[in-house]
Amino acid sequence: MDLNYTPEQEAFRKEARAWLEANVPKEKLKSFDTKEGFEQHREWEKKLQAGGYAMVPWPVEYGGRGANLLEWLIFEEEYYRAGAPGRVNQNGIFLLGPTIMDVGTPEQKARFLPQMASSEEVWAQGWSEPNAGSDMANIQSTAIKDGDHFVINGQKTWASRGAFAHWLFGMFRSDPDSSRHKGLTFILVPLDTPGVTVRPIEKLNNKKAFAEVFFDDARVPVEYQLGEEGKGWDVAMATAGFERGLMLRSPARFQDTARRLVELYKKTVASGQYVAPELRRTVAQCWMDAEAYALNTYQTVAHLMGGGKIGAEASLNKIFWSELDTKMHETALKLLGYRAELLPGSPEAGDVGEWLDGYIFALAGPIYAGTNEIQRNIIAERILGMPRK
Ligand SMILES: Cc1cc2nc3c(=O)[nH]c(=O)nc-3n(C[C@H](O)[C@H](O)[C@H](O)COP(=O)(O)OP(=O)(O)OC[C@H]3O[C@@H](n4cnc5c(N)ncnc54)[C@H](O)[C@@H]3O)c2cc1C
């Protein structure tokens, strides 16, 4: 096993680093969960696209630069190193994009991928419904064919950035007599379709980017069906694999947090504040876990590049990164002591408030992309071969 980078990979890293150093906005953008921040992030995405860095592993004709997955990991490392903005179109570029690449028609690839890579069109994920969260096979929203359109009725909820997004991808029951995993179709819905109502939901942080989406006889052309009719579940599972297994949370994100945590620890010690020995051990453990996650991801990428697929082990990843993220933020708050409660906007906060913001978001990690309890069920049944309850 050779753990060194090739000269080509090193050259790619250097080139990406130079571009990012020259182009990453000097001032932090506003949160992409606000309308102003959302548009600022779209501008940044356009710049990335113009520089050829929007989605490095995508083929050139779809707006990528034809890099392989290892180079994508290198790019992500440089991206976090440069402190570049979060990816506002992550549902599109990391989840739907690879799915379209897998099962989309040539027309769908040409129509959607370049617009996605530039964030001209930002995507929301419309899977959850009021009675279909963990139990996603209980989806009740319907999409019934009428000539060359689907007529959609029902409700989706918890769509991240749904309040500002342009499109939504979701699963709908296209066979009204079907139940559970059968008879569902994966459909791409323009959010400005007549009969679609988007209603923002305010989060704990007062931001209103989350949304519930209502469909009342919304007519969507059949060419927006992704994959086979009635086989939406299989398409969605591929998307979930990308979400849990590789793309959504690259290791660089957690390595960056771990690095910042180590810095915070050193600063706290240097300030003369007492730091309990168990916190010192936790900081070291977090750093090691972030490194372990990176090495594990390199292994996954090598497996994929050798023609393998991501299976149920994506669930192991999801539990690992979400629990690590919570642990790192929790530890930072302990190090900060009473200062941990300063909100990012408060005059005394400096960069302290970002830890609280990060902590609040980290708490959602064990819930979104499928709760960790559900991931543990998947591991028990599909990896360990334990019987279903
Ligand atoms: C920050 C955030 C962003 C999100 N973004 C999106 C999005 O963009 N698009 C989207 O469609 N959804 C999104 N979601 C929704 C998310 O996917 C759901 O919240 C999640 O799937 C859980 O569903 P639920 O909320 O209905 O909870 P429930 O399914 O009602 O679960 C409640 C609790 O019961 C547990 N539970 C349920 N069934 C079992 C079981 N069989 N075994 C063991 N425990 C079980 C769960 O683990 C959970 O702890 C987001 C959620 C969050 C927090």
Describe the structure.
- The strands form two sheets. Strands 1-4-5-8 form a four-stranded mixed beta sheet. Strands 2-3-7-6 form a four-stranded antiparallel beta sheet, with no helix packed on it.
- It has three domains: 7-88, Butyryl-Coa Dehydrogenase, subunit A, domain 1 (Orthogonal Bundle), CATH 1.10.540; 123-230, Beta Barrel (Butyryl-CoA Dehydrogenase, subunit A, domain 2), CATH 2.40.110.10; 249-383, Butyryl-CoA Dehydrogenase, subunit A, domain 3, CATH 1.20.140.10.
- Helix 4 (90-103) runs antiparallel to helix 5, helix 7 (251-270) runs parallel beside helix 9 and helix 9 (314-336) runs antiparallel to helix 11.
- It has helices spanning 7-23, 35-51, 69-81, 90-103, 106-117, 232-245, 251-270, 277-305, 314-336, 353-364, 372-383; strands spanning 123-126, 142-146, 149-159, 167-173, 184-190, 196-201, 210-221, 225-226.
- The protein has eleven helices and eight strands.
- The radius of gyration is 21 Å and the shape is globular.
- The protein is 47% helix and 14% strand.
- The chain is of the alpha+beta class.
- Strand 6 and strand 7 (210-221) form a beta hairpin.
- Bound molecules: flavin-adenine dinucleotide.
- Residues 125-128, 133-134, 158-160, 364, 367-368, 370-371, 373-374, 377 line the site of flavin-adenine dinucleotide.
